[in-house]
Design brief:
Mean pLDDT: 84
Low-confidence stretches: 194-209, 396-407
CATH class: Mainly Alpha
Oligomer: single chain
Number of helices: 17
Number of domains: 1
Order of helices and strands: HHHHHHHHHHHHHHHHH
Strand content: under 5%
CATH topology: Growth Hormone, Chain: A
Number of strands: 0
Distance between the termini: 8 Å
Shape: globular
């Protein structure tokens, strides 16, 4: 029977849940808000989503590095969640696409500040062979919030057909998330003891005598390169919501569709992370990328609302099989003293690449149609899967052989 997850991991999971309730009350309605009242096209939608993620990603390297230097994570976590919570509901006041861009950039900056320190704290308080389950749980709680948020949005729209009201009420769970992170997350959580027979990587200063941080391990650098290739074909999910509208799904049903997607993710994300502890990170990630390729090809082909509903449920398996294992593999490949910096680069690479990914998808969508754009994403997933097999080692197998329990 698996040991309970550390209290800090559970607390951060609840913070993620509340934050995503707030965020996902807005996100599934944003494409309709931009392309409707604000008169933006698919290319501009891609530019807004890509720029917001990419600009914010530059912060992620610095926040992870700073948390390693300080040896403290919570302050940066609080600042990051606080910034996002304050600016996100301001979408209710937007009257132009440029306003949405500014708000999205500030929201994503908050995510950039908190992301790497939060993931590093999860890794620090969790035994090495159990990190897949810990990150899977964190993502499951995140997706549970993303399930509840659209349902609340749909309920509000049922009572009053007013997008701006929905956006304004997203402030309520955002405030609750801030209270929870300030008073519920403990900085000084006990660190796990290494299992007998395991190899302990001793902590040391992440700064060399010349004042520079040592380079990340070559295996981790190659892994980040592979993730960059995959992310080039993994544009914003806003395009999939736009595809749903094209297939005949109405505005009021979009939050329900998005909730179904997150229901699948929340139900199986912890299982997906645990699977990587048992079978290996690469195998689990490859399975997830395979699901992604099939789902994107399906979105390119789909013509009816029923097909779209089924594809959104299936697409949730991709997230469940990759989000926890991808983070766990980062932790496996990084030294203990550079966890924050490693996660900073992970979030930076996957965030920065969203700009060219979203611009590419938006351009192909507008010039050649949705099918070409989506088939391109499926093809890049296949290329990334091949590179993962060729370039990245399977560290979780070494962990299991060293005697660290996998569950």
């Amino acid at each position: 029977m698996s040991a309970p997850l550390p209290r800090t991991v559970k607390a951060l999971g609840f913070v993620s849940l509340l934050t995503d309730v707030s965020s996902e009350m807005i996100y599934p309605l944003l494409p309709a808000f931009l392309t409707g009242p604000l008169r933006a096209g698919p290319a501009l939608l891609g530019a807004i989503e890509g720029l917001a993620e990419s600009i914010a990603s530059l912060v992620k390297i610095g926040s992870g590095y700073l948390s390693d230097r300080l040896g403290r994570r919570k302050l940066l976590i609080v600042i990051g969640y606080g910034l996002s919570s304050m600016v996100r509901p301001l979408v209710a006041l937007a009257t132009a696409a440029s306003h949405v861009l500014a708000i999205r950039v500030l929201d994503r900056l908050g995510k950039g500040v908190r992301g790497a320190p939060r993931d590093a704290l999860v890794a620090e308080v969790t035994a090495e062979g159990d990190r897949g389950r810990a990150f899977g749980f964190q993502r499951a709680m995140d997706h549970t919030g993303a399930l509840v948020g659209p349902l609340l949005a749909a309920a509000i729209l049922f009572v009053r057909d007013d997008l701006r009201l929905v956006f304004a009420l997203a402030a309520v769970p955002a405030i609750a998330a801030m209270l929870f992170v300030v008073f519920g997350v403990a900085e000084d959580a006990p660190k796990p003891k290494p299992a007998a027979g395991s190899t302990v990587r001793l902590a040391r200063s992440p700064i060399t005598r010349d004042g520079k941080a040592p380079p990340l391990p070559g295996s981790l650098q190659r892994y980040l390169l592979v993730l960059a290739v995959f992310t080039l074909g993994n544009s914003s999910d806003a395009f999939l919501l736009l595809r749903a509208q094209e297939a005949g799904i109405g505005l009021a049903a979009l939050p329900l569709l998005w909730s179904l997607h997150h229901l699948v993710k929340s139900a199986v994300s912890t299982w997906g992370g645990t699977l990587s502890d048992r079978l290996g990170r690469r195998a689990t990630i490859l399975a997830g990328w395979g699901v992604y390729a099939v789902a994107y090809a399906g979105f390119a082909w789909a013509q009816t609302p029923g097909q779209i509903w089924g594809l959104f449920a299936f697409y949730g398996l991709f997230h469940a099989l990759t989000e926890g294992p991808e983070r766990a593999l980062v932790s496996d490949l990084a030294s203990n003293e550079a966890q924050g910096r490693a996660f900073g680069y992970f979030h930076a690479v996957t965030g920065v690449m969203l700009l060219p990914a979203s611009l590419l998808t938006g351009f192909l969508w507008q010039q050649y149609g949705a099918a070409i754009a989506l088939y391109t994403g499926a093809g890049l997933a296949g290329v990334a899967a091949l590179l993962l097999l060729l370039l990245v080692p399977e560290r979780s197998r070494t962990i299991r052989e060293a005697g660290v329990p996998s569950s």
